[in-house]
Amino acid sequence: MPSLDHPPSKRSAPPQPLWLRITHWLNAVATVVMVMSGWRIYNASPIFDFAFPGSITLGGWLGGWLGGALQWHFAGMWLLVLNGLAYLALNLVTGRFARRMLPVTARGVLRDAWLALTARLSHADIRHYNQVQRAAYLFAVADLMLLVASGLVTWKSVQFPLLRELLGGYDMARHIHFYCMAAIVCFVAIHLLMVVLVPRSLLVMLLGRTTLRSTAKETTS
Predict the structure, then answer these.
(1) Which residues pair with 3 in a beta bridge?
(2) Pair 27, 76: CB distance under 8 Å
(3) Residue 2 pLDDT > 50
(4) Any idea what DSSP says for residue 214?
(5) What is the pTM of this model?
(6) Which pLDDT belongs to residue 93?
(7) Contact predicate 207/187, CB 8 Å
(8) What distance in Å separates the CA atoms of residue 177 and residue 168, rounded to the nearest whole number?
(9) Could you tell me if 54 and 109 lie in one domain?
(10) Structural domains counted in the chain
(11) Residue-number span of the structural domain to which 68 is assigned
């Protein structure tokens, strides 16, 4: 029996398997919920001299209230953790992680970044991740893991004393949580820009193919 991400024929394989598309969009929903509700929580006790506009926060009707924001945040947290674990487990079990995300080298990242900046980076094979993409996705995974860890310290500082100390204390954990949030927002913004530049990638994540109409190459099993 073929694996979830490694069917017998490369031509018959969808660029992104169904399980990946599902976990990808669930992660996207969880991230949006956590960021917007997190902005509302931040506004209740800011660590910098600014606050986020209530209209872009989540926590109830029209900007909401702190209790509602916390409920949304915890709901998003559980979805992100459980779905994220499923995403990582399936990537590792199917071998997709090693095939798509590795290797990554500083030289390779710099080379592909230069090719991208000079409009010479090929996107002909949507199944292939260049090294800039690989580095960005690995960064996003690591950032989300640190975001969850710092969030646990911020939420349950007494219950996670070792984790709190590893992160430099409660106040440092709050700062790390904010910086990780900012980093994932920047990642999403760049990710969306890349989708605009290579719209086929959005079709792949929505439909599992690079065109609106199914072709024999993509449907033959």
Answers:
(1) 6
(2) no
(3) no
(4) -
(5) 0.83
(6) 95
(7) no
(8) 12
(9) no
(10) 2
(11) 16-102
